[in-house]
Design brief:
- By secondary structure, this protein is of the alpha+beta class.
- It is 38% helix and 21% strand.
- The strands form 3 sheets. A 7-stranded mixed beta sheet has the order 1-4-5-11-10-7-6, sandwiched between helices. A two-stranded antiparallel sheet has the order 2-3.
- A hairpin with a 2-residue loop joins β6 and β7.
- The structure holds phenylalanine.
- The site of phenylalanine has 10 residues, from β10 and β11.
Length: 343
């Protein structure tokens, strides 16, 4: 037996279900399926219920018919509203997409920060009249030590400090053998810059790496004095660090220079807030006047020619440039670190 109350309840039930289904419909196809399921002429939930209308007494029919119309109108309205919503909203997952943003791209790589510094240093020395020279990383004892006035008894030549291959071959411990190779091939005047890798049996820490870049500089000519050296380095420092940069020479010792000096630099740093502060003194190179014994070794007359040389650490220079405190970050190959140096 069907009665009015039951039918009205069932109509309410269909309305509630239909509105729920419409609300969760995420795309037009699902919405259309909901429409068919509830309002479809054949087999739709509403038409199935309306078949029961015929079993009611004639005077009961208008009440249920009115209820059915009202339910149909609510479902129609909900379908229409949802359809409009779906048309306005972008597809699934796209709600937070900003199509005006530039596309995301994988980092395509870049020049390593230490190489960037080497390139910049090279540009400055090229502007000062230097040419580029290169030498092998696998050297022999003669070029690496003996010709540089360093006896094989010197601690630097010890196996604890040097990577020997098959004697007399070794991985060069500095770029200074390029001085020897250059002077054996080219008569003065000589003015070269020679960047390259050097190797020492150092334990890796914040300021030491067993494989590291160096830049050798060498000037040999008539009448070259320590004054030329100081002036050239002061000019280099100003061009690299800015007009406020100063250099300081501390007495030191190298077997192949006399006198020898460590060069420190002090420069003005502009902080992110715009204030300018002076840096600490930072050691950037070993240097000195080329020892007459070295010139004699390569057949150059030390009475006629003099000159100066330096070995600079570009990684140190890179640390000053970007305020990096640990050398190891340069070689860990961490893209999050390295990608910051791509302009
Ligand atoms: N070769 C020295 C070093 O590696 C640096 C240096 C180069 C010193 C040239 C004097 C002249 O420490």
């Amino acid at each position: 037996m069907t009665d009015v109350a039951t039918l009205v309840d069932q109509l309410e039930q269909v309305a509630a279900e239909a509105l729920g289904a419409i609300e969760v419909a995420g795309d037009p196809a699902v919405l259309e399926a909901a429409r068919v399921a509830y309002l479809g002429r054949k087999g739709g939930r509403l038409s199935l219920l309306m078949r029961a209308l015929g079993t009611l007494a004639p005077e009961e029919r208008p009440q249920v018919g009115a209820k059915a119309n009202e339910v149909k109108a609510r479902i129609d309205a909900a379908l229409e509203a949802r359809e409009a919503e779906l048309a306005a909203a972008p597809g699934p997952g796209a709600a937070q997409m900003d199509v005006t943003l530039p596309g995301r791209q994988a980092w395509g790589g870049g020049i390593h920060p230490i190489q960037q510094v080497i390139d910049e240093i090279w540009d400055i020395f090229r502007g000062l009249g230097f040419t580029r020279a290169r030498g092998p990383e696998v050297e022999d004892e003669w070029h690496n030590f003996v010709a540089l006035n360093t006896s094989l008894e010197h601690p630097a030549a010890d196996a604890a400090d040097t990577f020997y291959l098959e004697r007399p071959l070794l991985l060069r411990t500095h770029t200074s053998p390029v001085q020897v190779r250059t002077l054996r091939e080219h008569a003065p005047p000589v003015r070269i810059l020679s960047p390259g890798m050097a190797y020492r049996r150092d334990t890796t820490d914040a300021t030491h790496l067993p494989a590291f870049a160096q830049i050798e500089g060498l000037v040999i000519d008539e009448g070259v004095s320590f004054v030329d050296f100081k002036a050239t380095l002061a000019e280099f420092a100003r061009r690299f660090w800015g007009p406020g940069a100063r250099v300081r020479f501390r007495p030191s010792f190298f077997p192949f220079t006399e006198p020898s000096a460590e060069v420190d630099v002090k420069y003005q740093r502009v902080l992110p807030d715009g204030r300018t502060v002076e840096s600490d003194w930072l050691e950037i190179m070993g240097s000195g006047m080329v020892d007459p014994a070295v010139l004699e070794q390569v057949g150059i007359d030390p009475e006629r020619y003099t000159g100066w040389a330096f070995g600079m650490g570009p990684a140190r220079v890179a640390m000053t440039r970007w305020g990096i405190s640990d050398l190891r970050s340069f070689i860990e190959n961490d893209v999050r670190f390295l990608s910051q140096f791509t302009s």
